[in-house]
Design goal:
The protein is α/β, with parallel strands linked by helices. About 45% of the residues lie in helices and about 15% in strands.
Amino acid sequence: MDIKHIALIMDGNGRWAKLRGLPRIEGHRNGVKKVNEIIDAALEQGLKAVTFYTFSMENWKRPPAEINALMRLLSKYIRNEMHRLHGKNVVFRAIGSIEKLPSGIQKLLREFETLTKDNTGLIVTSALSYGGRTEIVDAVKKIMRNGVSPQEIDEKLLESCLYTTGIPEPDLIIRTSGEMRLSNFLLWQSAYSELYFTDTLWPDFGRDEFISAIMEYKKRERRFGALPE
């Protein structure tokens, strides 16, 4: 079964650190290292897109010290990896309520997007300050601002107003750490996505299990409501 787009809910950094008697930020720091491993595996597998749930709208409820540490990690990652990923022909996109992020992060994200916008390879999307419900509400607001009549509204129009326009819907969503929910991630886009849940904590999740998830996906049958042939 063909696979174009995999989305990942990177969960378990804090628990990984706690099990080792380390500060939570060490879990996040080790989790960041896994992002490149998965991007390289996605390139190797010939995927068209990979999306990472990097920072949710709900994550703003965390202690300010942890949020600030996460923003520093994000800034460092972009600065260190931007040109390397550009060299791999990657297209970078950031989706979510980006305006809520620190201005320095916003500037780096725009720089990364501009640098890679003419590339033709893997689309790497980072969902930042992201919420699936907020995305749908924002799409509806955009439609209303454009003065579209109710009769003109259909799924195709709404999809064109989502943050992810131009990116194929995820064939597979992977969530680490044993939790079995989407947590407000790509709610519209995941209507027919296959789901893969693993007890592996994100800092321990790597290329081998990523490939295993793809292999399991290829054994499944996606019927989209139709009867099997």
